[in-house]
User: Fold 3-isopropylmalate dehydrogenase from Glutamicibacter ardleyensis.
Amino acid sequence: RTYSIAVIPGDGIGPEVIDGALKVLTVAQRTFGFSLELTGYEAGAQHYLRTGELWNEQLAGQLRSHDAILFGAMGDPAVEPGILERGFILAMRQAFEQAVNLRPVKLYPGVDTPIAGLTPERCDLVIVRENTEGAYVGQGSTIHANTPNTVAIQESVNTRQGITRVVEYAFKLAASRRKKLTLCHKKNILVEAGKLWQEVVDQVGARYPQVQLDYVHVDAMCFHLPVSPERFDVVVTDNLFGDIITDLGAVIQGGLGVAASANLNLDGSAPSMFEAIHGSAPDIAGKGWANPVGAILSAAMLLAHLGEEQAALAIEAAAVGVLQKLPALAGPDMTMSTGQIADAVAELVTTN
Amino acid sequence: RTYSIAVIPGDGIGPEVIDGALKVLTVAQRTFGFSLELTGYEAGAQHYLRTGELWNEQLAGQLRSHDAILFGAMGDPAVEPGILERGFILAMRQAFEQAVNLRPVKLYPGVDTPIAGLTPERCDLVIVRENTEGAYVGQGSTIHANTPNTVAIQESVNTRQGITRVVEYAFKLAASRRKKLTLCHKKNILVEAGKLWQEVVDQVGARYPQVQLDYVHVDAMCFHLPVSPERFDVVVTDNLFGDIITDLGAVIQGGLGVAASANLNLDGSAPSMFEAIHGSAPDIAGKGWANPVGAILSAAMLLAHLGEEQAALAIEAAAVGVLQKLPALAGPDMTMSTGQIADAVAELVTTN
Ligand SMILES: CC(C)[C@H](C(=O)O)[C@@H](O)C(=O)O
Ligand SMILES: CC(C)[C@H](C(=O)O)[C@@H](O)C(=O)O
Assistant:
């Protein structure tokens, strides 16, 4: 089998970690007998500053022809915050109907977590974040601007259809795992949105009697997730709450250096996109201090999505093997550079 | 001086922890030479189930005559989630213009935090949460209900006036502390609301050149707060984000058992309200397992608000003294009951 992959390294440490992921993918294709056709695309802060281009029809058309997209990171102090996030990342998630943002929260053996006494056995959950609507639709208005009476209204728009596809996905996932699904919302306060979410979860849940259903307010989630992650198997939540709790998830699994994610198009109408959870970290770009494992695990999720389950598992196992030998996951205390870590993972993929 | 205090014990462990707080207040008034006139009010789940009464004009009128309100907790599995929260707690915060929800995040010596290696020196910040608007206004609508095309819209309403009073308060507080203020929002996505928040912070900040200004996205806050709390002094944020990050704050300071809060009316038009951050915990009610320190520290915040700074500090010091001797902060492993902890704090207030 041959897969066509679009590669968008982006800014800052994006190109470094993508280099690392590509090393591993290259080795994996030989070992597992598939082949990848890689096409690089320029995009991000530097590209925007030079050309003024963000997400656009032409690029969308080109990307659409690929089987999947591997994405690095975007952002640069020279570009006003929000421009690239909204103008590129959210634009892609919406244009390509990447309905589910899938974020595993898994503490790997040997990885240093800031949570005292937390063990890998107790920390293995997946957060399923709605990825195209909610507060991320960018709806709102400001009236009486520049007066003492300014009112800024920000809207969260939630559709039954948008929620349903994510919730269906979450139940299917839970049924294939420990059979527990937790809805995370704030339905006691956000009554309209919360009611629709709970309604959809109850309706879809009726078809999954084997999956145990739970509900946790988003504030309580921040309280329980760090100290009792074993309480959770699959957590389904809206776009904004998902953004928030997945960063907390990254903390407990040992930092952004190891956290991976998938932005999944569920109906095959456009490619899915895979990215590490970390940002472009311009302060450490070019130093070899970035941990490529988040990008490598995202590449493994890409392979799993394409049906190359065995290769995906081998990459995950290899990454775990290397993580166990790393005293520090990122920054100046790292004993291996970005490239060396990627080489070590690639090496383990072939020898395992 | 004599102060008139309304006491609302509420449900579950509310009455137990309020008993504890009252023991300490009673001793403090003798030691520090002021006197408290306490008036108890029935409210909460049990009261609602019996009478159908929630917040109402008559109760509001009675409470208004007091100098401050000491509040226990509300909630019971027999009452649908949201009824008491919206019908009583939020109703009070809004009716009494309790504009600021003040939540110190302080790790006391000897308290067990789940964050590995965290020390008290590194964890002493205050979260200033807007308490009357944002997503908590309850605005929203659902169209095409019960069809495949249901759309639920939830609004966050932010006014310049509402934001300004909170931001002013936060700057004043920062100026009296380590002189650092962090705005926590998600302005790259929630553009309308985020713009107004940043605008107000910049405008008010111009009058506080001695206060260093920072901005952190709410997702990044969840990433930094647990591992680098020393980065923060005063954090100002909106109602929903404040709800979320203060629970995370409670985690790092060692659990809900010790977290205190004030709901401050800033213009003297109505009384302020003081409550522990924990809920009614019906599962452990009546067992003597509840930690009264959150309620005791909230009572200390009440005294500080009334101008009894010295008594407030003495109570905090006494609570710290007792916390240092407690191996477990709540639950069946506690070596002291709710009442014994309160007695020990009261004892230390007089002897210190
Ligand atoms: C970059 C930004 C738009 C994005 C988000 O808010 O979704 C990021 O924080 C994430 O979680 O993927
Ligand atoms: C009880 C509930 C309404 C409340 C809130 O959401 O504000 C609580 O979570 C809090 O943080 O005080």
Q: What stands out?
A: Residues 1-98+256-352 of chain B form a domain with the Isopropylmalate Dehydrogenase fold (CATH 3.40.718.10). The two ends of chain B are 22 Å apart (CA to CA). The first strand of chain B starts at residue 2 and ends at 10. The pocket of 3-isopropylmalic acid (ligand 2) is lined by residues A 189, 219; B 85, 89-90, 243 (CB under 6 Å).
